[in-house]
Amino acid sequence: MTEKKRATTSFGQIAYLETGADGKPPVLFVHGIPTSSYLWRDVLRFLQNDFHCYAPDLMGLGDTEVDPDTTAFHMEAQAEMLAELMSTLGHERFAVVCHDQGGAAAQILMSRVPERLTAVVLTDCVAYDNWPVPAVARLQAFSRIPVLSDLMVRSGLVEWLQVRTRLSDFRRGVVDPKHMSEQSIREYLRPLRESEAHRKRFMQFVQAGHPRYTELAVEGLRRFDRPVMIVWAADDFYISPSWGKKLYEDIPGAERFELVPFCGHFWQEERPAEFSSHIGDFLSEVLRRPTGVGKSPARGQPKARKLPVMQPPGSGKA
Fold this sequence. Notes:
Layout: E1 5-8, E2 13-19, E3 26-30, H1 41-47, E4 52-56, H2 75-88, E5 94-100, H3 102-112, E6 117-125, H4 134-143, H5 146-154, H6 157-164, H7 182-194, H8 196-208, H9 212-221, E7 228-233, H10 241-250, E8 254-260, H11 267-270, H12 272-286
Parallel strand pairs: 3-4, 3-5, 5-6, 6-7, 7-8
Antiparallel strand pairs: 1-2, 2-4
Helix pairs in contact: 1-12, 2-3, 3-9, 4-8, 6-7, 7-8
């Protein structure tokens, strides 16, 4: 697998995968929970000849390093981090492909800074009030007992449950369990084994998940007129394709709604070639249009790094 790089931002050290070449259209790939940029490894391999691909680890997941005592882990902060990361990497305009809870960050970008997005692909993602899904809600409850949760992770019990038993949330996310390998599960859980700081960041990410962030983005989604494709696994155990259909109906720029049969939520582990074909064909078509080509600002012009502030009424820092 391509070695992760590190980018220094105001949030901390953001770990990311990068494939493709300068001069190709930049595309940002955003994962959800409990995965990392590793989720996109095969998709990036399929698309790297046509696009300049970036897949960061969200704050609290993977190998991104931020201060757990001073960092906000909610999805507005994640969206702001992603916008700053792409500016840091030299791209003021870019396409986004998102999955799972990463979809919340993408929808916030669509609502707040639509001018920065050249195209969007939404796949099997949270939206409206459909999250946290039951598996993540249980994890939120578990995370509120830090001594117990830390002990279960350090003892290897969590990894054993996910790798060896029918209770595995990872394997429920695929139609054929053999497509979710032991290696992949261990890689997704690896950061939790490595340090107390990783475990603390992960638990704060879990606790910060709340549907108010996608609910606040709905008005902006209903104004978003840049090219959008929704592509969904037909057998998603966690997030029904009906949510993808609702997004397709609500977003003015939505041009395609594709269902891919015989695969589940973690389609990247099960059908990466087929999904990559849908994504690559769509992005290649729309980014050739004059209005779909993203350009960085001329040298010397200020870069937009912060998202407009929009706090939910009566809410504090999540």
